[in-house]
Amino acid sequence: MAHLSDGAPGEVTSPALDADPLDGRGTGRMLVRGGALRFGGFAGGVGLSVLSAAVLTRYLGASRFGQYTTITSLVAVIAAVTDAGMSNLGTREYAILREPARTEMMRSLLGLRVSLTLAGVAIVAAFGLAAGYDAPLLLGGIVACLATVALVCQHTLSIPLATDLRLGVLSGLELLRQALTTGGLVLLAVLGVDVLGLLSVPMVANLALIAPTAALVRGRVRARPALRATSWLPLLRASIVFSLATAVGTIYVYTAQILTSLVTTHHQSGLFAVSFRVFIVSASVPGLLIGATLPVLARAARDDRERLAHVLQRIFEVSLIAGVGSALTLAAGSGFVISVIGGPRYAAASPVLEIQSTAIVASFLVAVWSFGLLSLHLHRRLLAANLAALVVSIALTLVLARADGAHGAAIATICGETTLAAANLMALARHDRSYRPRVTGALKVAAVTALAAACCFGPPMPSVARAVVAVSVYAAGIVITRALPAELAELLPARLRPR
Fold first, then answer.
1. Within this chain, do residues 131 and 148 fall inside the same structural domain, yes or no?
2. Which of 65, 125, 196, 199 is the most buried (most CB within 10 A)?
3. Is residue 465 part of a domain?
4. Do 279 and 134 lie in a common domain?
5. 110 is in which domain, residue-wise?
6. Which has the minimum average pLDDT: 113-117, 143-147, 307-311, 420-424?
7. Nearest to 367, CA basis, from 473, 464, 451, 249
8. d(CA 106, CA 99)
9. 168 confidence band (pLDDT: 50, 70, 90)
10. Residue 287 in contact with residue 42, Cβ under 8 Å?
11. What's the pTM value of the predicted model, to 2 decimals?
12. How many whole angstroms separate alpha carbon 333 and alpha carbon 467?
């Protein structure tokens, strides 16, 4: 496909685009504000998800809820596999192509993604038949898979919003989707509707978002998909290695939980499961926030390597501050978090979460350097890094979880995430030494972290108070030491900005 940017990383494969948010001086501030909005939307979505889960568990009962969750999990896996890394691929290509190649690529992307997702309907149907599900559950699974087709259409239409850095709009659309889904599930549960109706709710929510999304990008994306296999092959060739890396990365993330359940007691596996669930939610934040920078990284990788090095450095500085702050706060408040999620029966999971929260620092850095590799088309190196993390995670979980249960599995999680972060950084540095981060700011963050840890973990205090002290001391220390990048410092009130 001539229009797909498959040349050497950094080679200009299309003429320069007109000035836009990706090339402007205010890009950094737009990303910071947009990232804050995306995090706010994510937090709101988590709250709505907790509400819907609480309603469904009580309405369906344990057995039916287990089947419902199995179906929705299977649909989620199919959605991840059929995406094959093409969401990020489409965002990257849209950021660096110009018309008419851009329109061709988008039509081919939409046609390929819809076709692959439709193929997943057969998998869901076969699983339901093999599992002996009754007609409402089987039909509900098929409808839920079809809902993913509507989701794919809406997500593809929203790519121009991502490249325009309209992250607040994207966050609003995602929050609206979650609100419609939660509202529908609660309403149908109150009305006593069966599981078929419940599994149909995402279809309604996803279809409802297509029209407003299309209106927001009117004139920029044609909603008519290209259904020619010849136009799909270049997209598949471009995404195959990245999709393998994504698949390995997904397997790697869940390896610790799966293996822990095999090599330790049910009790230790349960303790780790509670901590692991908190970690998974927390570790998804870096990808959400840093993924918003992909259009900027892709454009810089194409046009200006010095700018790419500068952007990666800034993202590294912000991610390190956010990652350390998140880990410190979660470790300090682990007792409270576990009591909310699992109750007193899982109090022994609090020390496990304290250990595992350390891995969140590496999770933030993984996101920085993996998106850097993606922007440079270094998919094979990304795959190699994920394979290395997978091997480390499997080996250490088998050894440490067998020896020390949940605590050992938590340590294995830290080692796996650290391996992935280090491997991504090594791959970037081997490609170009200028992409190595400067660590001057990191030394300031380390000093502030040591002070915050001493203040909150030294004297005995309740978990919530410990978390408040950790956040307060850490935030104050970051501002006082001027560790904040300029783009973040400018968002602070004038009296708090470092002089």
1. yes
2. 199
3. yes
4. no
5. 28-227
6. 113-117
7. 249
8. 11
9. confident
10. no
11. 0.67
12. 5
